[in-house]
Amino acid sequence: MTQTQRVFQAWKGSNKFILGGRLIFGPDARSVPVTVLLIIVPVILFCVFVARHLRHEFSPYNAGYAILVVAILFTIYVLILLSFTSARDPGIVPRNLHPPEEDLRYETTLSADGRQTPSVQIPRTKEVIVNGVSVRVKYCDTCMLYRPPRCSHCSICNNCVERFDHHCPWVGQCIGLRNYRYFFMFVSSATLLCIYVFSISALYIKILMEHQRGTVWMAMKESPWSVALMIYCFIGFWFVGGLTGFHLYLISTNQTTYENFRYRANSRTVAYNRGCANNFLEVFCTKIKPSRNNFRAFVEEEPPRVVTTITRESEDEAGTRRQKVEDDLDIGDDLMNISQRCNPAEQPHHGLDIDQSMIGVAERAATIRTETRHGSWGSRRSGSWDIEADVSSSNVRESRS
């Protein structure tokens, strides 16, 4: 068995891998550096043009350094959450190489020329019970599996993802079961960072007004970067802050973004709601499941499979042959009954000929029946078949007399 490729090298999805398959991104991973720049650049400007001037503005004399340190540490924390969100398996369900055989349905279609053509079909949906509520799951033609509850196929990454929430272009990754917690923490932390930078920039404008004893316009002219940072954080706050509020609502009701937009108040979403407190505990306090995929493992060649449809066709052919033999036996029995009802006195010569021909039919029928049923039922006494031969010979003697 040759092992020439690793799983990430033969991966059928649209993901991108780095560091030998240790980190996995979506196909739009180029947006991640843009997101990093949108975080780092404002913080650098904040440290240079705002926090640096506040080092000695508070008592004790060097207390202002805390503003600079908090900004740097909090930014590092946000970037770590971004990496956990975008560079890990979001909960990809491994694909099947073949459709599930236990769910296959064999059907026969009748063509125009009267020939029967066997076909294999898979039900598109099936019902599963979740918390006492019946939930319909769909079959994925791409991954050749029935998606688990709350699972959906991402058209961008071309993977089925457990507890699929959405595909986020800003982090270049699907948001699912294994990274939703980090995504929410990233968005909420970015919101707090925006509030922090905005507040300290506004504080610096106020300090400039007090030092110069001027108006707010004079202070804004003194530090234009503070004004630019306030505008930037105000716009960013409505984006990341709005996402934070929306996902707080989703967590409290145990919904995903996909479910909220597609199913609304359907029973599908009611089945997962365990109460507000338990919903938050499920998201933040449960252990994250390990990945189902080992991207660094070697790809193993699949052994040859036996096609089940061939065996089924063979059984159908054998059944047809058995039916034909039984039909022949029924015809032979009918001819025997006809011969017994014939009057040998009125038709002596014809009756003899008919009885002699019936003997051959009966003997052949007995032989065929013995061979056929012996093969299907096992060992059986042949005396029953001899009785038919005796009955046939007695009929011949009666006709001759």
The domain count comes to 2
* Rg, Cα atoms, Å: 40 Å
What count of helical segments does DSSP give? 11
Average residue-wise pLDDT = 78
Helix residue percentage: 40-55%
* Helix/strand order, N-terminal first: EEHHEEEEEEEEEHHHHHHHHH
Keywords: Acyltransferase, Membrane, Transferase, Transmembrane, Transmembrane helix
Transmembrane segments: 32-51, 63-84, 182-205, 225-250
Catalytic activity: L-cysteinyl-[protein] + hexadecanoyl-CoA = S-hexadecanoyl-L-cysteinyl-[protein] + CoA
EC number: 2.3.1.225
List the helices and strands and how they pair.
Blueprint: E1 16-18, E2 23-25, H1 31-49, H2 65-86, E3 105-110, E4 116-121, E5 125-130, E6 133-140, E7 145-146, E8 152-154, E9 159-161, E10 166-168, E11 173-175, H3 180-212, H4 216-222, H5 224-253, H6 257-262, H7 267-270, H8 276-284, H9 308-341, H10 348-377, H11 383-400
Antiparallel strand pairs: 1-2, 3-4, 5-6, 6-7, 8-9, 10-11
Helix pairs in contact: 1-2, 1-5, 2-3, 3-4, 3-5, 9-10, 10-11
Provide a descriptive summary of the structure in words.
The protein has 11 helices and 11 strands. The chain is mostly helical. The protein has 2 domains: 190 residues; 93 residues. It has a 3-stranded antiparallel sheet, with no helix packed on it. A two-stranded antiparallel sheet has the order 1-2. A two-stranded antiparallel sheet has the order 3-4. Helix 2 packs antiparallel against helix 3 and helix 3 packs antiparallel against helix 5. The longest helix is centred in the C-terminal third of the chain and has 34 residues. The C terminus is likely disordered. Its main location: membrane. This is S-acyltransferase. It is a multi-pass membrane protein. InterPro entries: Palmitoyltrfase_DHHC, PFA4/ZDH16/20/ERF2-like.
